[in-house]
Request: fold
Amino acid sequence: MTAPTPHAAGRLTVVLGITGGIAAYKAVGVAREFVVAGHDVHIVATEGALRFVGRPTLEAISRNPVHTDLYEGVAEVRHVALGQRADLIVIAPATAHTIASLAAGLAGDLLGTTVLASSAPLVIAPAMHTEMWEHPATVANIATLRSRGVTIVGPDSGRLTGTDVGPGRMSEPAVIAAAALAVVGPRDLVGRSILISAGGTREAIDPVRFIGNRSSGKQGVALAEAALARGASVTLVAAHLDVDAPTGATVVTVSSTSDLQGAMRQHSATADTIIMCAAVADFRPIAVADGKIKKDAVGETLSLVLERTPDVLAGLAADRRPGQRVVGFAAETEPDDDRLQHIGAEKARRKGVDLLVVNRVGLTEGFGAATNSVMMLDGDGSVVARAAGDKLSVAHRILDLLV
Ligand code: C5P
Reply:
């Protein structure tokens, strides 16, 4: 007997939804593709699907019980449990009716609740007659699903039920399985614990004012998303984010450099990798006024005396455990590429990091933008990689280097 070949993504929990069309018989092949590739397959079949293909066949192939009824397994909250556990949901075949239900977000059956309860990638393989596939209602529903990030595989053009020929034939099982597995990135950070700081700190001047910076937290949040998608457990130390923290991360909210330092030190004890993406204040007021500073009491000018903040990153790097990796960021306004690299190299050595991600910032670059362009330097200050693009793809490049 040959052992299954593990996919780069590791062993996945795949929910395979089968809906009521003649192509349901080919779903047996889709289930088999996933099982042979070493994945744990849980089939959710609609009543309609079970008129085309038998439950014993699906259970024998998937090696798990087939789920159909919303009112079975209520004690284990099955209507959401399957979706919550899934790494990937594939619906093959997806009928016009199912596609419409998904577009509307209906939860009238087990497949609907499973999809709504899940944050896993959703891949569907439509199968129907050409007229139904080309109907404006289906076209609009497919566009809605695509806009939500659903991957649509096929349909192929070819022989349909009866004598009809045209677009609407479900793609071949191997094609569906390969397309679905390609959607799930590598799970190469399973078992790793990553601590990420994101956003920008604020240093109080008085109870209503602060010194802050323009960091949105987007790059740090993208790193957290990428690390979660690759299977890491993520703690996100969040300082005034403009964007939502990803579901699945443990979020620790902080405000000042001192809060951030406390949180990073505490959580670094269990982290394999520390990524200091937050823009940390370099100076803070020596004293915070107890009450709001009044213009009348101050006059025409106000001088604030600032002191240096502790360098959190350098401290974490100096105290790191054997094997623990520390990544820093450097946001610089230097326009010249060579000089930017020189500044980065000096900083990488001074801070004692394993990797320094250097990016240029300005009023229109870096902070708050959806994209980023970075050079990555090792601890000696040599350029080891460059990356440009949306912040999520830059995040994946950074994680590639760590892996
Ligand atoms: O020295 P500079 O501020 O350019 O260094 C940037 C890097 O150092 C970032 O990773 C930032 O999170 C970190 N940093 C820090 N503590 C400070 C200032 C910056 O950890 N006080």
Q: What stands out?
A: The pocket of cytidine-5'-monophosphate is lined by residues 257, 276, 278, 280, 282, 309, 311-313, 328-330 (CB under 6 Å). Residues 42 and 123 are 15 Å apart (CA to CA). The domain at 8-183 is CATH 3.40.50.1950 (Rossmann fold). Residues 1-6 have pLDDT under 50 and may be disordered.
